[in-house]
Amino acid sequence: MADRTFYLTTPIYYVNARPHLGHAYATIAADAMCRYRRLGGDRVYFLTGTDEHGDKIAQAAAKAGVTPQAYADEISAAFRESWRQLGITNDDFLRTTEVRHKQVVQAILQKLYDAGEIYFGEYGGWYCYGCERFYTEKEIVDGKCPDHQTALTFIKEKNYFFKMSKYQEWLVRHLETNPGFIQPERYRNEVLGFLREPLQDLSISRPTSRLKWGIPLPFDNQYVTYVWFDALINYVSALGYPDGALYTELWPHAEHLIGKDILKPHGVYWPTMLHAAGIPLYQRLNVHGYWSLGGGKMSKSVGNVVEAFQLTDKYGHDAFRYFLLREMNFGLDASFSEEALVGRLNADLANDLGNLASRATTLLSRFGAIKEAGGQPTPEDQQIRVLAAETRSAVDHEMADFAFQKALAGIWEFIGAVNRYVDAAAPWELAKDPAKRPRLERVLCTLADALQFLGIILDPFVPEAAAKIRGALGFTKQPRLEDAVVGRLTSVPAVEKMAALFPRIEAKVSEEGKSTAPAASASPVKIPMDDFMKVELRVAEVVAAERMPKSKKLLKLTVKVGDETRTVVAGIAEQYEPEPLVGRKVVIVANLQPATLMGVESNGMVLAASHEGTLSLLTLDKDVPPGSKVT
Ligand code: ME8
Question: How many Å apart are CA 361 and CA 599, to the nearest integer?
């Protein structure tokens, strides 16, 4: 049986820079995973935090002219605030400057020292301050750090060393006998690759003459702890190691989520540190790839990872979150661009999901509550049930490996199938024939059921939209995966029609190729004929027209469409006087969802051409009766 307790950690982020896209991705991915496990009823504990000691932070603080603590306080608060705004559901936020953490670091150091695992020695080597570690000759590229492409500094000094080398064989064996210990497999292979070279002992201290900003070694106050030795321990200090109840409960179920840049400390230093300290190893290390900035024209506006993160405010948390989870194949690198984000927002969220939710809730709200659906399920209904069950198990399978992109692709196949189901079942046609009422009820029931399924299973990925979907269906319970089943509903409550879940973004790209704020411009998107066929254009005769009170732009038109008379609000008041319009025939979109404009419900849209601010109403060159179809 699967492990029902789950302790997941993110990297704790350095406080030398503000939160950016990469941090946001790791934290959002961990959050989606934790939400998913909670949805499945598991006991979940989710830890994140900030890594506040070391040269890097001391240098950044000095540059800013403040103390390291003041600097750390400010940036750590910025991380915390970002996660709050993104709706991250972490249970704890650990700062390495907290007493609870420092005590555990010192206790573990003392334990290792007493056990003879730490010795005093001298080491000279090439050091990267960005990575906070020494590089071996083999790793150095053109005399520079392979990660930062910056010059390395040769440092030779006396330090304390952890006897890491003696665990090399043991670690290789552990990786070989536990193939799932590091995933995806490419990273397990990378660690095995490191371990083909002789493993060095690890320098775990820095002399206070060079660096004061760290945790003092308990056995020598002339030294502070090396930042990685300090930082990795956060994963157990946050649980109150060694006696805390959380530690006992959660540590046997620990999994880490990290980026590939910090594979070596997590795949080599940390397991050997744990083993030497007599602490059981974590269960699994999950490694994601790197985002780069690039892509199409619009992306030029996103110059750096901080700006990329700020797009979350422009496009909404759900859209940003969805994009990151859907676009990156877990473990591989991906490219971020504003254009790609807008593309997915329009296609997947506004079109596929948003249209389904608004079509479905419009139909459901029009027909009111269904007490006991009449018709029997047909093979089409049955297919939606089966697909829902298959989707749920596929999502479960993919989420077991953090394969968010595959889980989402599976859910979107289901959304596509439900959209096709509605097209084929055509409930609006069934509604015209009272004899088909039982079938109509069954179709609406399947539709409500499918929507409820989505309102549950999408919760970890687009939490705000999922909550809106459930809200429209009157589903007020705590969402649970076990309720994500299509086929149980026999009645449907009165459903509220939903406003657009995700507004389409019509992006205007200026000459320099920079994106500007979303603007209402001609959309370059091509639509299939089927979509166009859904639009009903008809001839309407204006029987009355008046200005809307307090509006310069709007006219309230009463129009005749066949036998029906309806109200249409049109934004043409700046160029058309109301009176001369009476008696004229215009073209309207007749099957638009009603919209309320300044308190008046508008049922349709008058068509007009526009050119540089001039509006020109569409008229007919031969007389046809009102209600005629425009095809
Ligand atoms: O390394 N793409 O902190 P850090 C994807 N304090 N993810 C990225 C990314 C990018 N371009 N840039 C950063 C540290 N990340 C240490 C960790 S843990 C005990 C100590 C993410 O602030 C990714 O998850 O440099 C990476 O591992 C992490 O941020 C590094 O954050």
Answer: 22
Distance CA 576, CA 561 (A): 21
Q: In this structure, what token pair is assigned to residue 339?
A: 């254009």
Which DSSP symbol is given to 251? G
* Stated pTM of the model: 0.81
Is the pLDDT confidence value at 340 over 90?
Answer: yes
- State in Å: Cα 23 to ligand 1 middle: 6
Which atom of ligand 1 lies nearest, measured to the CA of 261? Answer: 27
**Which residue minimizes the CA distance to atom 26 of ligand 1?**
259
Q: Give DSSP secondary structure letters for 333-348.
A: -EEE-HHHHHHHIIII
- Kind of pairing, strands 334-336 and 205-207? unpaired
Find the 162 Cα to ligand 1 centroid distance in Å. Answer: 24
Residues carrying an active site annotation: 20, 23, 128, 131, 145, 148, 297, 300
Render pLDDT for 72-108 as a digit per residue (tens, 0 to 9).
Answer: 999 999 999 999 999 999 999 999 999 999 999 999 9
Pocket mutation for ligand 1, best pick of 52, 261, 302 (most atoms within 8 Å of C-beta):
261
| Mean per-residue pLDDT, 59-70 | 96
Atom number in ligand 1 closest to CA 260: 27
For helices 404-425 and 21-39, the axis angle rounded to 10 degrees is 60
Are 586 and 542 in contact by the 8 Å Cβ rule? The answer is yes
Between the CA of 8 and the centroid of ligand 1 the distance, in Å, is 16
Query: φ, ψ for residue 609 (rounded to 5)?
Result: -85, 155
d(CA 172, CA 418): 49
Q: Would you mind telling me the total number of residues written for the chain in this entry? A: 631
Summarised one tens digit per residue, pLDDT across range 533-590 is 788 999 999 999 999 888 888 899 999 999 889 999 998 988 888 988 989 999 999 9
Q: Which of 23, 148, 325 to mutate to test the pocket of ligand 1 (most atoms within 8 A of CB)?
A: 23
C-alpha gyration radius of the chain: 31
